[in-house]
Design brief:
The protein is of the alpha/beta class. It has helices at residues 37-52, 66-75, 94-103, 116-119, 123-134, 155-165, 207-216, 227-235, 239-246, 262-265, 298-304, 324-330, 395-413, and strands at 2-6, 25-30, 56-63, 108-113, 136-142, 146-147, 153-154, 169-173, 180-184, 219-223, 251-257, 271-273, 285-296, 337-350, 357-365, 376-387. Helix 8 runs antiparallel to helix 9.
Length: 415
C-alpha cells in the first residue's frame, strides 16, 4: 500500500498525484476515525470494485478531523489548530487507521491535511479534482456522507452531478449496521461505580423510561456503528460494547517512560505510557487487555544512532508509513503480545497540549519474563472493565487486589 501525505496551499488547492497512467480508480473519502464496521464496509466495497474493474483502490483520508478544525475556528477567531495540537477525542491515530486499510488490501491512501481553505471548496470542484487528477471511475460513499463547503454535496447532489456529466458513478454502501441509538449530547466521562463490564444504561427500560432518559440528558440520535457512539461507550468504560462496533478491541499507542515505580516495589512493575498518546483514552479505571511491544521508538532509534539531524514530525501528518515489524508484532500469536492489567487515572494538573487533565496509563504485562520496554512504542488494547479506581489501606491490600485483577485479566483475555 502506498501512502501520500498532502497539504493544501493557502488557497485550499491540493497537488493530487497521478495514481496510474493506465488504470482508473475507485475512490472513497472520509476521516475513518476508529475504523469501525461501517468504515470497513465502505472500504471493503472500494477494494471489491477495484478488483472487479482492474482499477486502483484509493482512500482520501482527512486529518485532523473536520469537526475539530471547524470547532477550533469558532472559538479562536477563525484560526486553525496550531502545529502540535492534540485531538484528545480522536479514536485512532493516522497510522492505526492505515494499518487496517493495508490489511484490507487498499492500494493507495492519500492523507490530506484538512484546512479551512480546503473546506471552502465546493463539492463540484472536489469531484472534478477526483475525476481529473485521480482518474476516478466510481466514488463509494456511506449513506450519510456529504462533501464540500457546508456539506452541500449530499448523496442526492453527488448523484445528480454524476448523471449530468457521465464521467463517474456513485456507489452508495449500506453502512448503517444495526440501526440507531440515543447518545447524550454533552456526555462526560463517567467511571463506573461497580466492578465488571458496565451495561447499556437504557437496558431494560420501557419506551417511556427511555424517552425520559433521553430528554433529561438531551440525547441525540446516532448510528450504532459510529465514532460518536464508540467514543461515548469508551467514556463510560464499556470497552466490550465498543469492540463489537470496532470489530476488534479498542487500542491506544504511546512510548514507555519512567514512572514512579511504585508497582515494582510490590511485585507488579508496569509499563507507563508518556503524555503523547494516540487514540482515545477510556474513562478512569482498571481494565483487562493486552500490551504489545511495537519496538524501539523513532526517537530512541535516532538517539542510538546519534542522529542529531532527525526531523521532528507533526503527529497530524506522518511523513512516512512503514508498518514493517509492527504488523507481525500485533498478530494474535506474537511473542511481543502479553495479557495485561491496565490502570488509567487522572492527575489534577492540566496538559498544555490538550487543555484537559493529564491522564496516567500503566499496563502490567502478565508474563514470567523480565520486560525492559523503556523508550519502546507500545500498543495497549482493552478487553474488559475490571473495577473503578479506589484507595487501599496499604501495600498488602493493594497487592492482593492486583493479584485478583491479574487472574480476571487472564480469564477475560483467554476468551
Amino acid at each position: 500500500m502506498k501512502v501520500t501525505n498532502l497539504t493544501p496551499d493557502a488557497t485550499g488547492l491540493v497537488e493530487w498525484p497521478t495514481l496510474s497512467t493506465g488504470k482508473r480508480s475507485i475512490v472513497t473519502v472520509g476521516v475513518f476515525d476508529g475504523m469501525h464496521r461501517g468504515h470497513r464496509t465502505v472500504i471493503r466495497r472500494v477494494v471489491e470494485l477495484a478488483k472487479k474493474h482492474d482499477a486502483i483502490s484509493a482512500v482520501v483520508m482527512f486529518d485532523p478531523r473536520p469537526g475539530v478544525v471547524h470547532g477550533y475556528a469558532k472559538t479562536h477567531d477563525g484560526m486553525e489548530p496550531p502545529a502540535g495540537f492534540v485531538d484528545a477525542l480522536a479514536l485512532t491515530g493516522v497510522d492505526q487507521r492505515l494499518r487496517v486499510m493495508q490489511e484490507m488490501g487498499v492500494d493507495h491512501v492519500l492523507v490530506v491535511r484538512y484546512t479551512l481553505a480546503f473546506a471552502a471548496k465546493s463539492y463540484r470542484f472536489f469531484l472534478g479534482q477526483m475525476v481529473g487528477k485521480l482518474g476516478m471511475r466510481t466514488m463509494v460513499l456511506g449513506e450519510d456522507a456529504a462533501l464540500g463547503a457546508n456539506r452541500a454535496g449530499d448523496l442526492k447532489a453527488i448523484n445528480l452531478y454524476a448523471q449530468a456529466f457521465g464521467v463517474f458513478e456513485l456507489d452508495v454502501v449500506d453502512d448503517r449496521g444495526p440501526g440507531h441509538v440515543r447518545v447524550p449530547v454533552d456526555a462526560k466521562p463517567q467511571m463506573p461505580a461497580e466492578p465488571g463490564e458496565p451495561k447499556d444504561p437504557t437496558e431494560g427500560m420501557s419506551k417511556a423510561e427511555k424517552r425520559a432518559w433521553s430528554k433529561k440528558l438531551q440525547a441525540k440520535d446516532v448510528r450504532v456503528w459510529s465514532s460518536t457512539n464508540v467514543r461515548y461507550m469508551l467514556s463510560q468504560g464499556r470497552v466490550q460494547a465498543a469492540a463489537e462496533i470496532l470489530g476488534e478491541p479498542h487500542g491506544i499507542e504511546g512510548t514507555v517512560v519512567h514512572g514512579e515505580e511504585r508497582g515494582r516495589t510490590i511485585g507488579f512493575p508496569t509499563a507507563n505510557l508518556g503524555s503523547d498518546i494516540e487514540g482515545y483514552i477510556p474513562v478512569d479505571g482498571v481494565y483487562a487487555g493486552w500490551l504489545i511491544d511495537l519496538g524501539p521508538s523513532g526517537a530512541a532509534v535516532a538517539a542510538a544512532n546519534d542522529d542529531e539531524t532527525a526531523e521532528t514530525v507533526s503527529p497530524a501528518i506522518p511523513h512516512t508509513y512503514d508498518p514493517g515489524m509492527s504488523v507481525a508484532r500485533l498478530a494474535a500469536d506474537s511473542p511481543y503480545r502479553w495479557p495485561a492489567a491496565i490502570s488509567i487515572g487522572t492527575k489534577p494538573t492540566f496538559s498544555e497540549k490538550t487543555g484537559l487533565n493529564e491522564r496516567v496509563v500503566e499496563a502490567y504485562a502478565v508474563t514470567d519474563d523480565w520486560l525492559d520496554l523503556y523508550d519502546h512504542d507500545v500498543r495497549v488494547e482493552f478487553a474488559g472493565f475490571l473495577r473503578p479506581q479506589v484507595r487501599f489501606a496499604g501495600a498488602d491490600e493493594l497487592a492482593a487486589e492486583l493479584r485478583r485483577n491479574v487472574q480476571e485479566t487472564l480469564r477475560i483475555t483467554a476468551r
